[in-house]
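Lab notebook, design round three. We kept the backbone fixed and only want residue identities now. Task for the bench partner: fill in a sequence for the structure below.
Input structure tokens:
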């Protein structure tokens, strides 16, 4: 696949299995001045269906589109950034990031552009401090933690890295489930590679649920792990882990259990008491708060060494200026969702149940992932036999639906999902749909029609 002719034509071999990565590589080379006679564009994202590939946005107000006029060639021309009004699109990737709730936006706007160090004694500073503490109370109430036991971070990723680093010390043995987010899995692997900890991996079954028997074996094996990390629910399968049983095993053997509740807090009821966790990690943007805000809520008496030194912020657990706007938005989102968690979860469960029935009723070769009896109400993860997720995601994008695949285009690489490979499925054939409070209940009809059309077309091309 290479640029040819006047610079507006990109030749694509028939049977190309990784067009997205190839196109991104060529466009990136063109932007850096290495692609001969290639259009000058600065891609941020790429979308495609059987007839069209769009790369956008470009510099300034311009963008470029690549049109697939035949199975073997792509042509580019200037085009407005989007021909579809934002209101016409349906966002179905809430497991990655939920839309900002109005309450969170309003709380943030009160602090954007204002200068006030919450550590100072003047009026503006004390107002900022009050905003942080009100948010702390709201986040604590969401997970049943005392405000003083809530520590704000810049994200769940930062929080998990902190807790892994705090427990992986002096050759300590730590157990992590094989289903963990990379914030835990990769951090633990790094600690082991550096020789500061010994890491055990808890096995999982084909649904992605941890094997409690294996956890018990690890805890009983001589000097078992003193710290265990378990994700409350998996972001790729939707399986909810048997947290209560896992924490009971840990406590019976004097080990602490850290629960990554980034995908469940604010979505379903989850508290320190209900999980018996020693620490719960939350992420604001997973349920309608802003990106850039996370938190750790700990059980009374549980303490970890400070994440950052150099200041007394967050009770000297995380030094550095607080992000008042993000924290205020986090607290406002928590206060908004806490009152109707169960009813909203039930509503979303009904929507995804109906969606599953419609999909299997109209499309052959579909297998749903995750535990059928213990799964997130807002997530549908599935395998599409003989069809790669990447072109389906891009095709649905052109139809007005934003979804995710276990193997998707990024700015740098295309890599398979570790999680999906562990449970024995082909990650390149995965598609994940995740809904939320703003998802229209009647979206399934048009969505499944678009999905069926895209899958049928791709299977037809494959012969």
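Proposed sequence:
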């Amino acid at each position: 696949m290479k640029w040819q002719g006047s610079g507006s034509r990109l030749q694509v071999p028939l049977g190309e299995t990784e067009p997205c990565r190839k196109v991104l590589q060529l466009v990136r080379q063109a932007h850096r001045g290495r692609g001969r006679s290639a259009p000058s564009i600065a891609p941020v994202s790429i979308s495609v269906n059987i007839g069209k590939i769009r790369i956008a946005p470009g510099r300034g107000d311009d963008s470029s589109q690549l049109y697939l006029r035949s199975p073997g060639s792509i042509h580019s021309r200037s085009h407005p950034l989007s021909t579809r009004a934002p209101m016409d699109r349906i966002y179905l990737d809430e497991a990655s990031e939920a839309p900002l709730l109005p309450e969170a936006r309003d709380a943030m706007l009160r602090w954007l552009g204002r200068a006030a160090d919450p550590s100072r004694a003047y009026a503006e500073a004390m107002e900022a401090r009050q905003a942080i503490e009100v948010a702390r109370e709201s986040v604590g109430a969401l997970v049943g933690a005392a405000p003083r036991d809530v520590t704000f971070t810049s994200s769940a990723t930062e929080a998990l890295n902190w807790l892994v680093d705090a427990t992986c010390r002096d050759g300590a043995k730590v157990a992590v489930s094989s289903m963990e987010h990379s914030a835990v899995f990769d951090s633990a692997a790094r600690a082991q590679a550096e020789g500061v900890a010994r890491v055990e991996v808890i096995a999982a079954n084909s649904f992605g649920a941890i094997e409690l028997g294996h956890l018990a074996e690890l805890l009983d094996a001589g000097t078992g792990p003193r710290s265990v990390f378990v994700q409350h629910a998996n972001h790729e399968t939707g399986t909810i882990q048997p947290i209560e049983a896992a924490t009971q095993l840990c406590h019976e053997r004097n080990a602490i259990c850290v629960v990554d509740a980034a995908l469940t807090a604010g979505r379903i009821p989850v508290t320190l008491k209900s999980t018996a966790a020693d620490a719960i990690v939350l992420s604001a943007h997973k349920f309608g708060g802003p990106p850039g805000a996370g938190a750790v809520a700990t059980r009374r008496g549980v303490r970890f060494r400070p994440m950052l030194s150099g200041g007394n912020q967050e009770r000297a657990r995380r030094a550095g200026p607080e992000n008042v706007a993000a924290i205020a938005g986090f607290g406002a989102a928590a206060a908004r969702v806490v009152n109707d968690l169960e009813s909203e979860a039930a509503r979303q469960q009904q929507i995804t149940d109906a969606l599953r029935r419609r999909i299997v009723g109209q499309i052959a070769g579909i297998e749903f992932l995750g535990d059928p009896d213990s799964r997130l109400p807002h997530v549908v993860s599935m395998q599409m036999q003989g069809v790669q997720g990447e072109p389906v995601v891009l095709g649905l994008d052109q139809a007005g639906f934003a979804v995710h695949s276990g193997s998707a285009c990024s700015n740098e690489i295309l890599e398979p999902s570790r999680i999906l490979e562990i449970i024995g499925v082909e990650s390149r054939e995965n598609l994940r749909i995740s809904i939320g409070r703003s998802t229209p209940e009647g979206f399934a009809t048009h969505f499944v029609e678009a999905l069926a059309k895209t899958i049928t077309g791709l299977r037809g091309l494959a012969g």
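Keep this in mind before ordering anything: The first helix runs from residue 19 to 31.
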